[in-house]
Input
Amino acid sequence: MTAQERPELSGKVALVTGASRGIGYGVAEALVARGDRVVITGRGEEALKEAVERLGADRAIGVAGKAHDEVHQAAAVEAAMDGFGRLDFLINNAGTNPVFGPIADLDLGVARKVFETNVVSALGFAQRSWHAWQKDHGGAIVNIASVAGVSASPFIGAYGMSKAAMINLTLQLAHEFAPLVRVNAIAPAVVKTKFAQALYEGREAEAAAAYPLGVLGEPEDIGGAAAFLTSSQSEWITGQTLVVDGGIFLNAGVG
Output
């Protein structure tokens, strides 16, 4: 999108974690496309810089760091407040899934790392966004969960457990932050990103065939859902988890 094609500013500002690529970038792109300004985070400074350039340096700020680092969380929120003067929306997307295998053999240290990154960091960002702006001015939070959090998820059990916790975190925050702040979650199935590459690489057609809609998800699919959940069109929705799965749950119990 060129500078000439960008819409007028909406006046709204979002913080999107884990947004140098993949789903997070898809969300940031959707928000910028409607006129929001964004602060995006990511671990790699170079990838983050490139993402800011694509989004537009006048519309985006990048803050590099690890999601579970409280100093980084504070820096990201401060970047929104100092750079744009407000923080209306938080999209908790940063996550990790460093292990593949049965949970019977799961290293508990790895389990703690998964929960620290996927759940505790989301709570930390929510707390900081609340105190910095939302408790006085309102807004919305969207947590990017997963279908792994609403069903059994063989071989990625730690990830699934963390996403189930994230869905419950959504409920807790929605209850506590009402009526000023709405809090919802999105639970995607397999989306074509580097993060999920191992689930479809080299066999995309086969993987997609399992979905009633016949295709895997794209980052913009989740971006559109996040844009809706942070818009005035969803003002009477809170505490919900929107499953975006290409229809894969329709196959449950078939056969």
